[in-house]
Structures are given as structure tokens and as C-alpha cells.
Amino acid sequence: MKVLIADDHHVVRRGLLFFLKTQKDIEVVGEAVNGKEAVEMAGTLQPDIILMDLVMPIMDGIQATEHIKQRFPDIIVLMLTSFSDRDHVVPAIEAGAAGYQLKDIEPDELVESLRGLMRGENMLHPKATSQLMKEPEQPAPHTVNLLTPREQEVLAELTKGKSNREIASALFVTEKTVKTHISNIFTKLEVQDRTQAALYAVKHGLTGTNQ
Questions:
Q1: Which residues, in sequence order, are CB contacts of 71 under 8 Å at separation 6+?
Q2: Tens digit of pLDDT for each residue in 134-164?
């Protein structure tokens, strides 16, 4: 996979570059020092994943993510930051970040997060997940009715961070069936990826605990 690092701290970029270069399946294709550079380099380098810092000069990570997802929807953004509060987590995911990890993450765990995102999984740090779970909004009736009962079950399992295989096993269906349900969920809820779908579920009480 091709990875672009976007962070305004030289030491952080050097540390990430040093470790990622040791991974045979990862190629670091560039380094951006601010959000504006990240947007420009996303277009020229076409990375698979961008490791995006949240607070940067000129353009922050949330603004950069919004621009990138609008122009290059297939590029995956993993937010890598020091902030785990709801005021940072939710806007980042709503902007299009498919994952949210903290900078104290172990290097091996970061690499597994990158690989997980390439498999289509949602990768959220436990502290970020706990923030999303706080004070979920009550669902409007029409919101619940958008999804079939089976799609609601799939969404509830997806919100737990499960892969398609794990969801299929839990619901006793095939992975192909799960993939079809997830595609329908994305369309009906007008979300782009699993992480946004999970956020929607939490915000509207569709995690399986309130049904």
C-alpha cells in the first residue's frame, strides 16, 4: 500500500517514516507539513492511505480530509492525533476519516490499523469509540424505517468494529450477503464508509442496545 504522511512536526514524520519503511507491504510516497500540502500531494501521488494529523497550520486535518474525500473519494484517511475528545473525534469522522488513532499507539498496532483499513474495516482507538458512545441521539421513526431488520442487525455488528467475516458468523449468513447489506446501508444512510455508518448508528441509537 502507498502511504502519505501529513504532520507538521518533523520528529513525528521521521518516526513514522523510520518504522513504516521496515514494512514490506508499505511504501511511504510523500510527506506533507500542513493540510494544504496534503491535499495537493493526494492529487499528484494518489496514495492509498493518508496518515493525517489533526492540528496543522494553513489548513487543519479536518479541512484537508473534507477536500480530499470530495476530490478523491477512494483515498483512505486515518487521523493520527493526540486529541481523543468528542469535539475532535466526531468532526473528523464526519469529514470522511475512516479511522481515528492516537499518537501513543504502538507501532505494530498502527501498521495493523493501516492493513485493516485496506481490508475495509473501521479502525477507531478505544478512547475515540468511548467518545462516540456518549449521549447518542434518539432516532426519528423514519430513520429506523430506512433499514430492514436484517440491515439493522448488520449495522449493529458493524458498529462493534467487526469484519464482514465476523458479522457473517454472528448472523449465520454468507460474507457475500453481508457485503450486499452493507452496500445497501451505505446507500440508505448516505454515508461513505463503515466508520461513518458506525457514527450514524451511535448518533441515532441503532447500535442494537436500544432496539
A1: 39, 42, 43
A2: 655 555 556 667 888 899 899 988 887 788 8
Question: DSSP assignment, residue 126?
Answer: H
CATH 1.10.10.10 domain extents, the chain: 141-203
Assign domain 2-130 to a CATH class: alpha beta
Long-range contacts formed by 160-166: CB under 8 A, 24+ apart:
161/121, 161/122, 161/123, 161/124, 161/129, 161/198, 163/119, 163/120, 163/121, 164/120
pLDDT digits (tens, 9 = 90+) for 5-30: 999 999 999 999 998 989 999 999 99
Pick among 1.10.10.10, 1.10.287.70, 3.40.1710.10, 3.30.70.2190: CATH of 141-203: 1.10.10.10
Which candidate, 127, 69, 136, 70, places its Cα nearest to that of 102? Answer: 127
What is the pTM (predicted TM-score) of this model? 0.74
